[in-house]
């Protein structure tokens, strides 16, 4: 192993918590089971690393193999940074027939066309996800394996998820993705999260959808009839109505675990009618950020508990309906929608 | 009546106050306050149940607008620099018994010895090796505003490296202050008591605990956590926003926590100019003595909450206002503050002194 391979291995091992080391090395599948058992996972990291390096040298492992370890760890632990979603548009006729081998070869070739030193590693998982690790260099420097970009794409879908992409590399990745997936344009989807799974579920609708026709029946089954059919009934009806409105906006089941949503408000002041600011044409600017360990569930609970007024405002329900968590809100101008899509500058 | 947890010093302080202080009116109240025991004659306190503190009914409904003044003209800029940019955890402190600003050097030695002794409890140590800590007490002259305010005291704990020749590193900082404290209350204190009701600390929890415990033993006082309720946070939001024309507040950021399952955090950052215009549409500035009323503060916060509601239909009033911040400073309801600019330090400390005094049993 050369100096660089050791440095990267050290970096990767440091990132992995002690209790996950064994699983990560097993998933990597580059050491024999005897070698894996001979390692003491309770050792301090520096000592463990020494022993690990000697095993790697026995097996003549190289930098390439070390990057595979990092990739295996990220695949098992994707919530290690903020992922951003991108959407592909205008699929060309042959887009549906792109297979993994084609995609991989094309992507590599297109990236190498524009960036002389680039290292690309790909892996297709059982669920169809294609994981791509890109270490960027330029004409004069070797690929920087310390800050790789990760890209996850499901073939034949129009979504791409990206982690750690520097803006100077964006055009290169855009172009390579468009050419290898056979699309014409690509745009940021205004959705970002630490949870790759939540984003995927939200965009690919892999969570329990809202079926308004079924709602009424299930709700009646769940809510026992009130024992005192006077005031309690009215309360129960209100609660049920709130719950129904909450479910109509966010669904009834387990929701994708989104943590944040950001709204940039560029609207006029809307306060009490007697405030003079109401008459002004100037905007009342601000940014609202919602955060929770499960944002959509929090919203649903806010509505059903009466902390928010129903029906749910389109601003909030847009998160599930449009699969976005970043919005710019402007005032309705005649003939235009109240929410214009955000374009990050 | 619940038993009031009052420290042991009552037993010697009460007779003392009887002997040494003339029996004028404020003193009657003093003896009432420190003497809730059966030997004490029934006082005003017992006749007015519900009237628990003399300060309680004096929560101000109006305040002077925050005015910028360059505090470094009267306070050592180096000392001011220590107060800003740090996050401070707030506590309230009862008056200190026999605290003397002239004895700070002695206190430095005693506190250092106390910390070392507490750290070494049960540990066998080599005799002669002075491991550990150096403490400095210093008076920050000029922070106090009135003649009743005691001068601020700043404490630093440095850890002394055993072997290296490095200069000691500050590991803990804290200060006790009183700015524009209620003059009637301060005058009513017996002569041996100094009120520095606001304690700010920054550093490891165990050192904070040791410092507090040393103060409690030495000056017979008692500490309690100081939380900032939403009224206080509302005041700060309005006071700071009002400063915008003279000192750019850069942003007004308000944070709420909604008790949903799971809890929802909402952060609303308002453009400073727009926030000020809303404030300006509510607050009418009179030229002589610029005062702000609580009604104006509430209108301002309501104005922001309504604008938010018109968009998201979420009732912020169902949640808790947890934090207010601008470039001038930030305050968290769990009792943590940051001072962003020294120019408005007096306004902030006046407000916090008031909070701390309100918590002091009288």
Automatic annotation (TrEMBL), chain A:
Cellular localisation: Chromosome, Centromere; Nucleus
GO biological process: CENP-A containing chromatin assembly; chromosome segregation
Pfam family, one: CENP-N
Keywords for the protein's UniProt record, in alphabetical order: Centromere, Chromosome, Nucleus
Segments passing through the bilayer: none
Gene Ontology cellular component list: chromosome, centromeric region; nucleoplasm
Main location, first listed in the record: nucleus
Domain of life: Eukaryota
Similarity section: Belongs to the CENP-N/CHL4 family.
Protein name: Centromere protein N
UniProtKB/TrEMBL annotation, chain B:
Keyword Ubl conjugation: no
InterPro entries on file: CENP-L
GO cellular component, one term: nucleus
Keyword annotations of the record: Centromere, Chromosome, Nucleus
Highest rank taxon of the organism: Eukaryota
Record's subcellular location: Chromosome, Centromere; Nucleus
Record's keyword annotation contains Nucleus: yes
Transmembrane segments: none
Signal peptide (UniProt feature, chain positions): none
Stated family: Belongs to the CENP-L/IML3 family.
PANTHER family: CENTROMERE PROTEIN L (PTHR31740:SF2)
Identification of the protein by name: Centromere protein L
